[in-house]
Amino acid sequence: xxxxxxxxxxxxxxxxxxxxxxxxxxxxxxxxxxxxxxxxxxxxxxxxxxxxxxxxxxxxxxxxxxxxxxxxxxxxxxxxxxxxxxxxxxxxxxxxxxxxxxxxxxxxxxxxxxxxxxxxxxxxxxxxxxxxxxxxxxxxxxxxxxxxxxxxxxxxxxxxxxxxxxxxxxxxxxxxxxxxxxxxxxxxxxxxxxxxxxxxxxxxxxxxxxxxxxxxxxxxxxxxxxxxxxxxxxxx
Length: 236
Hints:
The protein has about 240 residues and is of the alpha+beta class. The chain has 7 helices and 13 strands. The longest helix is centred in the middle third of the chain and has 25 residues, at about 100-125. About 25% of the residues are buried.
C-alpha cells in the first residue's frame, strides 16, 4: 500500500519474483486498503508510512484491530519509525530504494512467522468432540457428530436428524450448538442448526432469504438475521 504509483509498480515487480507470492493487490489510500482487506483474504501487506492523507502507522493500528489481521511489512524511505513499527507488531521494516534480495528476505521472514503461528494455533486448538450422547426412550445413544444432518426445535421439542435415524433430545438447541463447535455446523435460524456438508440445494426464498434442502430432503429456512454469516460460510 503506497500512494506513489512508481513505488507500487516497483514493489509489485519485485514481489512477482518472490517465491510464495501468488496474488498482488494494490491500494493507494488507507480507505482503499481497508476496503480491499475486507473484500479479499490478505496474508501480508507492504505498507508505506508517509502518505498524503494519513500515516501508515495509523493504518497499521486499524489493521491490528481486525479479527484476522494480515502480517505487516513497512516499506518506507524513513528509518526513524522502525521502533514504532515493531511496537505495532510489524514483521519487518524495509527501506527504499527496494532491492530484490531484501524483498525476498522480508517475504521469507513473513512466511516463517506465519508457519510458526499456525503451529502454535494447532498446538493450542482445543480438541472438538467426535460424538455426543443423546438420551431417548430410557436409553443413551452415542451419535457421531459428522452423521448429524440438522438439529431443530419445534414447540420446545428438540429433534436431531442423522443419516440413520431421528432422535428426540432433552436439551435445548443452544446446548447442541455448543457441542458441535469445531465441526461444519451453522446456526441459520432461531429454530435450526444445520451441517453445511449435508446441504443439497439452496433456493431463493421470501424477503431475500434462502430455503435450504438437506440430504434427508428436509427444508430449512435461513432467517434474515443469519443471512450474512450463511453466505460467507457457503461462499455466496
